Amino acid sequence: MKQAKDLHVSIIGGGLVGSLCACILGNKGVHVKLYEFRDDIRQMEVVQGRSINLALSVRGRSALALAGLEEEKTFVPYDKDGKCIYSVGRRFLNEALLTAAEKNSNVEIFFKNKFLDYNFKKGQFKVLGSDGEIKQNSSELLIGCDGAYSAVRGQMLKLPRFNYSQFYIDHGYLELCIPPTDSGEFAMEENYLHIWPRHTFMMIALPNQDKSYTVTLFMPFEMFDQLNTPEKLIQFFKEQFPDSIPLIGREKLITDFFKTPPSALVSIKCNPYHLDDKILILGDAAHAMVPFYGQGMNAGFEDCELLSELLEAYCFDLKKILPAFTERRYKDAEAICDLALYNYTEMRHLVTSKKFLVRKKIDNLLNAFFPKAWIPLYTMVTFSKLRYSHCISRKQMQDKIFITVLWSIAVIGFSIIIALFTRI
User: Fold this and answer.
1) C-beta separation of 286 from 276 below 8 A
2) Residues 6+ apart with CB under 8 A from 191
């Protein structure tokens, strides 16, 4: 029977999912080599790339607990209830995970090492090292955790019967910041996700530990293009988000807005997530999603937890583990990708609809009276570990019950009215 110490794994990508995967596997005794094409993030003054604040919920916290990290770190909750989400900075969490992974003597991390290609016949891969030399490497398992534009997945695309699709939404995002007040306090209520819904676009704000807020503006690219002068920008904010101008600061708003161009948002699906017993992709490399359900990181972390469970269940037999991972994860990953796209419509548009708000209140009321029988979709996704695909199935069942009850009430009410008029 194979043991953890007999398994040698190479992980491509030292971001959130890659570093957590290295930490979990390292804790098991697996020999891990982690390759990251950037410099060590812990040594960098400025980090380029995405910085949307992350929403850490039950699924992500469960994976962190598996790595022995969940209780070590302090995050900012934005719900006073026991069912809370934690707002956490990407860099802060990435640094913590890398440090935790390095504590295992069986984990090696190589920075400024870029993955180049994979030789399917030999089971070997090439990396461009920090010294500028191309090096040939091999391991029993190669795990791609290298994000939405995964180079590992790119190698898998060369093979037949690998399904892949990507979809860019028409909206981009740009990040702003609300600083602390002059007295060093939060400028708004800190225990909430703040949303400015405007039907075709929206702005959100999440709290940070330093009492600032990370503000993200989501808009069609055409609208971003139209705001090409400071005057147009300020006029737009006066019309759409007037209360945010004194919070952000006029000059800071102008500086931050024009500092970087808006970034694109992509949803990616592929299948399978593995190649024989040699390659596996996790996180955004397998299922990149738009950020509107706050589950991208949580889903990636859940991938790591599932892999850990399967390693134990199948006694580190990769021939069984990798196919089982794809079979178990594919439907759930597709489900959360679809939910994330739907939730953008909900956040920017439906939250202003009276019908939607009434239904939301009814769902919450039913959940209060029947907490196990009736669970709102958001609660299932965010505050439970129920499989994503099962969350959708249960929501569809609850919708059918809701509509049936409404029709029954309408028919009964109509019958009573007819009966009363008949007596008259």
Assistant:
1) no
2) 77, 78, 79, 80, 207
Q: Are 109 and 101 in contact (CB under 8 A)?
A: yes
pLDDT, tens digit, 9 for 90 and up, residues 334-367: 999 999 998 887 766 666 677 777 888 888 888 8
Q: Is the peptide bond before 220 cis (omega within 30 degrees of 0)?
A: no
Among 271, 280, 272, 276, which Cα is nearest to 320's?
276
CA atoms within 13 A on the CB side of 299: 31
Tokens of 217: 């503006």
Cβ 244 vs Cβ 237: under 8 Å: yes
Report the largest interatomic distance among the alpha carbons of the chain, rounded to a whole angstrom. 95
Contacts 24+ apart (CB under 8 A), 146-151: 146/12, 146/13, 146/15, 146/18, 146/115, 146/285, 147/13, 147/15, 147/283, 147/284, 147/285, 147/288, 148/266, 148/268, 148/284, 148/285, 148/288, 150/13, 150/281, 150/284, 150/285, 151/12, 151/115, 151/116
- SS3 sequence, 87-119? EECHHHHHHHHHHHHHCCCCEEEEECCEEEEEE
Q: Cα torsion at 252, 257, 259, 264 (round to 10°)?
A: 150
User: What is the identity of the amino acid at 313?
Assistant: A
Residue 352 in tokens? 């202003």
**pLDDT tens per residue across span 173-197:** 999 999 999 999 999 998 888 999 8
- The pLDDT value recorded for residue 48 is 54
Query: Taking 50 as the threshold, does the pLDDT of residue 76 lie above it?
Result: no
User: Global pTM?
Assistant: 0.89
